[in-house]
Amino acid sequence: MIKGILMKGGEEKFIKYSFYNFSGLKGQTKVSRKGLHFYSSRVTLVFSSPNKQFIDYFLMNLFEFEQVELGGLFLQPEAVELEEKVELGESLKFICISPLVILNSSFNDSSAKRFISPDTDAFSDLLYESTIGRMQAAEMFTDEQIVSFYKFQVVPDKSYLARLAAAQKKFARIYPVYDQDVKYEVRGYTFPFTLYAAKEVQEFVFHCGLGQFTHKGFGMLDVAHSNPNSRVLKYEFSYA
């Protein structure tokens, strides 16, 4: 749906833009054999990017539709709100509001489904490599800045993982992802963690997501112990 809205606007620089992130639809739901059923009269989509012009472009094209269809659900765009800026430091606890994917995938390759324990250096290293690669590609930082971002460590909330294990619940599942009409399967992780990294790195992953396939809705984060509803501002358009 999001890709279709970006293409509708016809601006090549935004159609190919990939430094954005979004959540699943938030609302009251129930899982059945036929899929996910929404019982809310309203649902919320969280959409994020460091590029204000890109967000304006997306919203302006979205609100030109009286109705959009998503997975059999008919939605009417109603309102947009801005979350107030969160103060970020070099140590911050995040929660995943969409699954975190750490391995890239390719055709006829099942390696992206491999489980890697979040408390290993390999887990952090893979996230570091993908994050630094994306920060370089974004052309928002100098080479000197990129080199200075060597501090990077993901530390999972071990008590949370222990509670899930005791209850025989999973924090890692296999998810489908589509690229150029090709379906891949990847492993996604959902758990709270503390990220130790430079402030600029924290801001980048907060706005652009963490891990692989972030522009396809994976790896969206929020700050733990915060209430987004209490930090809502009026959204002001600046795109023309």
UniProtKB/TrEMBL annotation:
Record CDD domains: Cas6_I-like
A GO molecular-function annotation: hydrolase activity, acting on ester bonds
Entry keywords, A to Z: Antiviral defense, RNA-binding
Gene3D superfamilies referenced in this protein's UniProt entry, alphabetically: 3.30.70.1890, 3.30.70.1900
GO BP field: defense response to virus
A Pfam family matched in the record: Cas_Cas6_C
Occurrences of domain CRISPR associated protein Cas6 C-terminal (ranges): 84-223
Organism superkingdom: Bacteria
Similarity field: Belongs to the CRISPR-associated protein Cas6/Cse3/CasE family.
Record-given protein name: CRISPR associated protein Cas6 C-terminal domain-containing protein
Organism (species): Fulvivirga imtechensis AK7
